[in-house]
């Protein structure tokens, strides 16, 4: 061997395997809460169907912007796969609610299984979304509510005010009845004329839209859709938008409810996950989370 070849062999560096890419300590610390939640989701999914979570703060109404989060959560779901949707919302836009539950329903398939899990509450438009499931999973802490859409409109000072549609229309109808019974009553006339005809027509349209959607979702399940819808929209039975419809009442209405005791090990995991999700958001925010997606809007 020549001297030059020997030197070349001597100076060749040893092969060092490439270093594996790993999360930095700071990134891991900043995302620790998310990792904990998603680990819990995977633990739940080891015995339960695919779990998607939509948890909204008490000031975050159901809105079309939520489409972004739902599409992301459904991105890796196998068509026809059974789906569980954990739902917590104060209510909101009826049309948006129809779109969102329609997206999940489509992913589960026409003959597929979709459960809506209500750990705390799903009000108004949230109740409508729950009606789109094959089964509503509830416990002692769970509540649905009357179907009473909320609509944002301007008050006399130009400020945004959220109105209860059924309460507003009920007051309008009462004022109209009072005026018909006493047409010469100046106070009754002044009260009636405070109602804006444009808002009245708008709210009547929203009410009819909510009724139509509820009946459509219930008809799909072979339920007495007219009776159940009328009961959920009965302003005399449910004068308050926030009134509770618990699991027993929901069953009495003939909704398909799967009751889980608060001591059930599966329910305790649902509740633990819900607590983590609620703490992750502000009142104006909502979180969309699965075992692979985590979005806060």
UniProtKB/TrEMBL annotation:
<dbReference type="Pfam" id="PF01972">
    <property type="entry name" value="SDH_protease"/>
</dbReference>
<dbReference type="InterPro" id="IPR029045">
    <property type="entry name" value="ClpP/crotonase-like_dom_sf"/>
</dbReference>
<dbReference type="InterPro" id="IPR002825">
    <property type="entry name" value="Pept_S49_ser-pept_pro"/>
</dbReference>
<dbReference type="GO" id="GO:0016020">
    <property type="term" value="C:membrane"/>
</dbReference>
<protein>
    <recommendedName>
        <fullName>Serine dehydrogenase proteinase</fullName>
    </recommendedName>
</protein>
């Amino acid at each position: 061997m020549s001297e030059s070849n020997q030197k070349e062999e001597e100076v060749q560096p040893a092969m060092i395997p490439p270093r594996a890419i790993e999360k930095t300590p700071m990134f891991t610390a900043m995302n620790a809460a998310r990792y904990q939640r998603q680990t819990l989701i995977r633990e739940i999914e080891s015995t339960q169907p695919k779990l998607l979570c939509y948890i909204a703060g008490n000031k975050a109404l159901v809105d079309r912007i939520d489409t972004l989060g739902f599409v992301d959560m459904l991105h890796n779901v196998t068509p026809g796969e059974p789906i569980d949707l954990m739902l917590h919302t104060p209510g909101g836009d009826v049309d948006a609610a129809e779109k969102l539950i329609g997206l999940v329903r489509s992913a589960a398939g026409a003959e597929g299984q979709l459960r809506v899990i209500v750990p705390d509450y799903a009000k108004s438009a949230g109740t409508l979304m729950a009606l789109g499931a094959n089964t509503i999973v509830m416990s002692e802490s769970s509540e649905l509510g009357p179907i009473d859409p909320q609509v944002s409109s301007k008050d006399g000072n130009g400020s945004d005010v959220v109105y209860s549609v059924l309460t507003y229309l009920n007051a309008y109808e009462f004022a109209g009845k009072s005026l018909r019974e006493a047409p010469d009553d100046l106070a009754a006339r002044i009260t009636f004329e405070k109602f804006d005809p444009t808002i009245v027509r708008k709210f009547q349209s929203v009410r009819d839209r909510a009724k139509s959607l509820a009946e459509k979702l219930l008809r799909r399940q072979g339920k007495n859709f007219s009776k159940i819808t009328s009961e959920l929209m009965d302003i005399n039975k449910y004068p308050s938008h926030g009134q509770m419809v618990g699991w027993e009442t929901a069953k009495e209405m003939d909704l398909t409810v799967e009751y889980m005791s608060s001591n059930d090990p599966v329910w305790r995991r649902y509740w633990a996950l819900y607590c983590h999700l609620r703490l992750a958001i502000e009142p104006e925010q909502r979180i969309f989370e699965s075992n692979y997606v985590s979005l806060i809007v």
